[in-house]
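We were asked to recover a plausible sequence for a given structure. The inputs and outputs are reproduced exactly as logged, with field labels preserved.

PROBLEM: sequence recovery
POSITIONS: 124
GIVEN STRUCTURE:
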């Protein structure tokens, strides 16, 4: 029986992107569905809880990825992004801050991917 270590370093990036898609994809669908005659009501509280859970999952994935490559930048940026988004959701809502939080979360994911790729290339 072989002991293979599974690589979950993709989890942070995937959860980050899924959080962005959940927020803006749902809003886009709710805005477009009335065009075809379908009315949808979105439970904002449920959306905020879902996105908050995805942010926590993204941070856990980024922390796991950090353990692999030891480059703190993507993890620190994703922590700052998640903190900003949680403040926007549970503190004082601001559309520009929400956009800033999601954009920096995507930037952290891309940065993390590039760091992993560079570290993987160096290890070969």
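RECOVERED SEQUENCE:
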């Amino acid at each position: 029986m072989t002991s293979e270590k599974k690589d979950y370093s993709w989890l942070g990036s995937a959860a980050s992107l899924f959080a962005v898609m959940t927020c803006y994809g749902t809003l886009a669908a709710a805005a477009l569905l009335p065009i075809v005659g379908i009315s949808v009501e979105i439970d904002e509280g449920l959306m905020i809880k879902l996105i908050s859970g995805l942010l926590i999952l993204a941070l856990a994935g980024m922390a796991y990825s950090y353990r692999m490559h030891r480059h703190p930048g993507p993890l620190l940026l994703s922590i700052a992004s998640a903190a900003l988004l949680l403040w926007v959701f549970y503190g004082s809502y601001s559309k520009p801050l929400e956009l800033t939080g999601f954009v920096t979360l995507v930037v952290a994911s891309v940065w993390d991917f590039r760091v992993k790729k560079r570290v993987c290339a160096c290890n070969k």
